UniProtKB/TrEMBL annotation, chain A:
InterPro entries xrefs: Spore_Ger, UPF0353/GerABKA_families
GO BP annotations listed: spore germination
Protein name per its UniProtKB record: Spore germination protein
Keyword Transmembrane helix: yes
Keywords for this protein: Membrane, Transmembrane, Transmembrane helix
UniProt GO cellular component terms: membrane
Membrane-crossing residue ranges in chain numbering: 241-259, 271-293, 343-361, 367-386, 398-422
Family according to the record: Belongs to the GerABKA family.
TrEMBL record, chain B:
Topology with respect to the bilayer: Multi-pass membrane protein
Keyword Chloroplast (UniProt): no
Protein name: GerAB/ArcD/ProY family transporter
Subcellular location: Membrane
Segments passing through the bilayer: 46-65, 86-111, 117-139, 146-172, 192-210, 222-242, 271-293, 305-325, 337-358
Length: 483, 364
């Protein structure tokens, strides 16, 4: 079948397709576009205006005349069709021509750059990514005006045809990681990729793990930092989350604000965050273990407080803990699904009214209420949302293990967790590096955030071809007293 | 007769991790009872015996490196090379049995500790099953994960250092008079300490998994030094807290010692001490299962994943068949004897055979 009629016929099946016929010249000129995708301004002023001003221009002349930079001559009707669905205007000379002039008139509607809401920081820049890929790339380019910053574009998804941009700095990013990453993206077999979080799950090393092996961020400054440390950043058109790989466990407990605060303060905050993770996972399982099995283990000073608080509670500790954990999860889930203002109300009603009432009705001990509320709070200090969700889920197996074998159950669970973390990799990089495999020179930015003079080398586990950030000797010239 | 180390660099561990591995393998859960017999022999002079044992193990480590560096491969291949296909396989089989029995012993000892100190009515099989499933999960991650667990298990030192809290109960008079025992008594005490010191032989089976193995020797010696230091610490705690007569009534003096520790919140530290025993046990069980399944893999030419469940099942059945304390003690006595022969007779013998073969080659 002839290509031209087929192209127009298939396009005409969409209601928003417009086919405009210009008969001013020697032969008919067909202009086809999808009106919901094109910018009327560009279309009318640059394309249609140019057409009616030069009715007798030939195809090639017209190609030169149209004052739009993104244009091409295409002889493949499939590609033409794809481009029309991306907001291009197709121009055909004559009834049966096999050549189309494609001009970009895509309407870019979307949010304007706004404050990042999930990763808000008090200090530092307030720009967050938006849905438009070009805007996002612009935000990154502004921060990295470096000639070796490379952007590789891929298309993924048989229906969504999503544009994926892989951003890296040539000469700083390890080629092997880059190839693995691109290979994984190319291997994605899925039709509709609506967000980069889907992509995240599809390119991870172990998709059955509850631990995320990629980090999503909405901060362009964080991406600029990650790219210059040798990581690879993946952006998807239509998604405000940039993903970077490879990552290790410790990166999940770093907020980018750590780098904007003085190093001692940042380190203290970071340590508090890491302790709060441990507290969040272990507090309620320990409560179950101690109350169920090891009551004698608690000192006499402390025991009366606990006993008196749960003297009227009719449930065994594990049921009590499970009820309270579920109530907290329920509150969080309800708060997340409702509009902000109602969500806040629910939080207050649920938190204060339910909590007080539950203690007064002797359904739970107020000691446990404190533990559960604190561990929920502690889990929210983790800056990466997927990790904080992981930590909230993680405590349930621990609670069950504590109910079965007390302290021993918790320790067995911990060992299983450690074994799992030891087995995990991110793009083939061990998840627990630099602790295991142990890399002494890379320990500097894990638990503490040292002063910037210590950042003279990039992390060796990113295997950067240029591992040196700056010359340490020049930077640290030591002075004696009174010099 | 040099063979290239065949392991892919992705599977190897850095040389200094030999320190972690050897130390974790040496410092097993039998330390809970290790001070009774040597102190019975050498009393307050037991520290001399501990140092002697440590030095002799260092000599054995030197011998092992001589063998391994000369042959450039692990003992499994050396066996075949030196003794032929059948005799070599027979020797390898002996080592499979040794590792499996060692795993059984560690597992059964741990379960016994839990049954005595935490849950009196806990049956043996559920805990054995859970721990073996855990060990299976770790071992199926490969050698690197096994060593990772060894490294993680080093947080056990928290409980050892907690022993400094009851310092007010220490009786330093117990340490005098020094040098009060005859050399034969001190040697007897050293011999009684062989079993806790065992573990360096693990090196014979994972040599090819070490990145630049020639550089790892100093780390093996350091590991042995740390083990000696830890054992000295434990022996001193025993001497300082117990009279020798009291000690002979104890089964696991180290766990009893935990009873001396008190914190404002925690009254019974021995619960934590008994639970923490798992950190001594799991690395050894994992390494034993890894080593025996690897020997099986090389001997039979099958996949390690096929051998591993089978061996885990054997360990499970064997652990369930050890009924009580005498059973554990018989097993310990057997392993003690085997380990003694292995370290002080078999390894020197292999060294001599390797030397003779090298000499014969150069002569011919």
């Amino acid at each position: 079948m002839n290509a031209a009629p087929r192209l127009w016929k298939e396009l005409c099946e969409s209601a928003d397709f417009v086919c405009y016929e210009n008969r001013l010249g020697a032969f008919p000129i067909f202009v086809g576009y999808i009106k919901t995708l094109t910018e009327t301004d560009v279309l009318e002023r640059s394309i249609l205006g140019c057409l009616s001003d030069n009715p007798n221009a030939s195809f090639e002349e017209l190609f030169q005349l149209i004052p739009v930079a993104e244009k091409e001559i295409c002889e493949d009707w499939k590609r033409t069709q794809d481009k029309v669905y991306r907001g291009y205007v197709a121009i055909q000379y004559g009834q049966d021509s096999q050549q189309w002039l494609l001009i970009n008139a895509a309407a870019t509607k979307g949010r304007s750059v706004a404050i990042p809401e999930v990763e808000f920081t008090v200090e530092g820049p307030k720009e967050g990514f938006v849905e438009s890929l070009d805007t996002n790339l612009n935000l990154i380019r502004q921060r990295v005006p470096y000639p070796d910053l490379r952007i590789k574009e891929l298309t993924v998804g048989s229906i969504s045809k999503s544009r994926i941009a892989v951003v890296y700095i040539k000469g700083i990013t390890n080629e092997q990681y880059l190839n693995t990453c691109i290979q994984r993206i190319e291997d994605v077999r899925f039709d509709q990729i609506t967000d980069s979080t889907l992509l995240q799950q599809m390119i991870e090393d172990n998709s059955n793990s509850i631990f995320p092996q990629t980090i999503g961020t909405e901060r362009p400054d964080y991406v600029a930092w990650a790219v210059s440390s040798g990581q690879i950043c993946i952006l998807k058109d239509g998604s405000p989350t940039a993903v970077f790989v490879p990552v290790n466990l410790w990166l999940f407990f770093i907020t980018y604000e750590d780098y904007y605060l003085p190093w001692i303060i940042a380190s203290v905050l970071r340590m508090i965050r890491m302790c709060s993770v441990l507290f969040s996972v272990y507090a309620s399982p320990l409560y179950v273990a101690v109350i169920t099995y090891h009551g004698q283990g608690i000192s006499n000073v402390f025991l009366p407080t606990i006993v008196s608080s749960r003297i009227n509670v009719p449930f065994p500790p594990v049921v009590e803990v499970l009820i309270m954990e579920l109530v907290i999860e329920l509150l969080r889930e309800a708060g997340a699904r409702l509009p902000t203002k109602i969500g806040q109300t629910i939080g207050i009603v649920g938190g204060i009214v339910l909590g007080t009432a539950a203690v007064e009705a002797a359904l739970t001990s107020n000691f446990l209420l404190i533990i559960v509320a604190l561990s929920a709070l502690a889990s929210f200090t983790t800056p990466v949302f997927r990790m904080s969700a992981t930590i909230r889920v993680l405590r349930f197996p621990f609670i069950f293990a504590a109910q079965i074998w007390g302290l021993l159950g918790i320790v067995i669970c911990t060992l299983a967790l450690v074994a799992h973390l030891l087995r995990l990799t991110s793009l083939g990089m061990p998840y627990l590096v630099p602790v295991y495999p142990f890399r002494k020179s890379d320990l500097y930015d894990t638990v503490i955030r040292p002063p910037y003079s210590k950042f003279h080398h990039r992390f060796s586990f990113f295997r950067s071809p240029s591992p040196v950030r700056f010359d340490r000797k020049k930077a640290a010239a030591k002075k004696d007293i009174d010099e | 007769m040099k063979l290239p180390a065949t392991e892919h660099p992705r599977l190897t561990v850095s040389a200094f991790l030999v320190f972690v591995l050897i130390h974790a393998m040496q410092f097993g859960p039998e330390y809970v009872s290790m001070s009774i017999k040597p102190i019975r022999w050498a009393g307050q002079d037991v520290w001399i015996s501990a140092i002697l044992s440590g030095l002799s193990i260092s000599a054995v480590i030197w011998l092992m490196y001589q063998i391994l560096d000369r042959c450039g491969t692990d003992l499994i291949h050396i066996h075949r090379r030196l003794f032929g296909r059948w005799a070599g396989s027979g020797l390898n089989l002996v080592f499979i049995v040794y590792f499996l029995l060692l795993a059984c012993f560690q597992l059964r000892l741990f379960i016994e500790v839990i049954q005595v100190w935490l849950f009196a009515d806990l049956a043996t099989w559920p805990l054995a099953l859970v721990l073996l499933v855990l060990a299976y999960y770790i071992v199926s991650g490969g050698f690197r994960v096994v060593v990772g667990i060894c490294m993680f298990s080093l947080i056990r030192y928290v409980t050892i250092f907690a022993m400094f809290f009851p310092a007010i109960y220490f009786h330093f008079n117990n340490l005098t008079p020094a040098f009060d025992h005859s050399p034969s008594e001190i040697l007897q005490a050293s011999k009684a300490m062989t079993f806790p010191y065992l573990g360096a032989e693990s090196l014979l089976f994972c040599y090819t998994f070490i990145k630049s193995p020639e550089k790892s020797q100093k780390w093996a010696h350091w590991a042995n030094a740390l083990t000696t230091f830890s054992f000295l610490l434990i022996l001193f705690f025993s001497l300082l807290l117990f009279k020798p007569e009291q000690l002979s009534f104890e089964v696991w003096p180290q766990l009893t010692k935990y009873k001396f520790i008190q914190f404002p919140f925690i009254d019974r530290f021995e619960y934590i001490g008994a639970t923490a025993q798992i950190l001594w046990v799991i690395p050894i069980i994992c390494f034993c299962l890894w080593a025996s399944s690897r020997i099986g893999k090389i001997m039979l030419g099958v996949r390690q994943t096929a051998v591993l469940p089978f061996l885990s099942l054997i360990v499970f059945a064997a652990v369930c068949l050890i009924p009580d304390r005498p059973g554990v003690e018989r097993l310990q006595a057997w392993l003690d004897g085997f380990g003694f022969c292995l370290t002080y007779a078999y390894i020197p013998l292999v060294y001599l055979v390797v030397l003779v073969r090298v000499k014969a080659r150069t002569a011919a």
